[in-house]
Amino acid sequence: MSLPAGQEAFDAVEVRFKNSRKEFFRNTEGLSLALGDVVATQAKSGHDVGIVTLTGELVRVQMRRKKVPADANLPKLYRKATQRDIDKWQKCRGQEEEIKKRAREMAIILGLQMKISDVEFQGDGSKATFYYTAEDRVDFRQLIKDMAKAFGIRIEMRQIGYRQEAQRLGGIGSCGRELCCSTWLSDFRSVSTAAARYQQLSLNPQKLAGQCGKLKCCLNYELDTYLDALKDFPPTDARLQTEKGVAFCQKSDIFKGVLWFSYKEDPSNWHTLTKDQVLEILALNAKKQRVNSLEEYASQNYSAEEVTFENAVGQDSLTRFDRPKNNRRRKKGRKKRRNPSPKGKVKNA
Questions:
Q1: 20 to 30 A from 36, CA-CA: which of 156, 191, 207, 229?
Q2: HEC string of 176-189?
Q3: Closest among 116, 138, 136 to 128, alpha carbons compared
């Protein structure tokens, strides 16, 4: 698509490497690129190979989103990858699993408290980056020497967090879909147990934790909606002073605006109150006035629900086959007992 008034296309390109790692490069040669093109890009030493994911003005928007200046000094995009570049790149990618396995064995032999989660080769095969997770600081100088001697390449160790590890490896979440961090989520915001409390979720670590072992990022998705709904909602730890005694909140439904209260002496008997009724009672209690009972307010909210069944699709009765069986046999048996047949009767000659 040609730009209006002879405007030149934005000269930056977004390139994706292994897993979800993406970087921006400057298309100084003015190459005509499309999504999915395999290109050779500048690296610290040598070149790397990746796949184009964004071109044109969308790159400018993405750079603004990631707070990268449009006139930043970006590395260069050399050329479209040749078949020789692609063959070498695929050969290196095929060795990554075996090298990762051997690197883990070396780390175990050295007794290092670290987990090597992924290995990424540079496109020209001259360098390998090992991503690892660890609780504390790890002295891996001897490990780097051993791996450089065994593999014959330059080694770079890069520590990542548990969320970044899940982002790189990917997987399926408890919702049945791919992990948000490995598909569309670009930043990791802190998640606290308060988000689960506001949404009235059970504080079960096994259900609230994701594959990374941390609290799920999706706990923050609906948090703002719950906070807005709680602005004019009575606190759940409120106590209602009545003539029959003190009442405590047992349960609340934020979006229906309903709370369930019970007396301290009778905790198993719950009374349904709306949030406006609870705020009214709290206002009276603040003036040192007590209401007679919760039943007076709860009776206003009671409505009998009639359960009806409509044969909307014209089906027959579901009990049409539930009929007593063997009725005929029983009737025949009764007739035989009433009228027994004569035995031993001899005809006259």
A1: 156
A2: CCECHHHHCCCCCC
A3: 116
The CA distance from 255 to 225, in Å, is 10
Encode pLDDT of 99-111 as tens digits.
Answer: 999 999 999 999 9
pLDDT band at residue 340 using 50, 70 and 90 as cut-offs: low
Rounded distance, CA 250 to CA 252, Å? 7
Q: Give the Cα separation of 176 and 246 in Å (integer).
A: 45
Cβ pair 52, 14 in contact under 8 A: yes
Contacts (Cβ under 8 Å, ≥6 apart) of 132: 114, 115, 116, 117, 138, 157, 158, 159, 160
Q: Which CATH number fits domain 87-160: 3.30.450.20, 1.10.4200.10, 3.40.50.150, 3.30.300.20?
A: 3.30.300.20
| CATH 3.30.300.20, the chain: domain bounds | 87-160
Mean pLDDT of the chain: 85
Look up tokens 């690892």; give the residue.
132
Tell me what pLDDT residue 206 has: 86
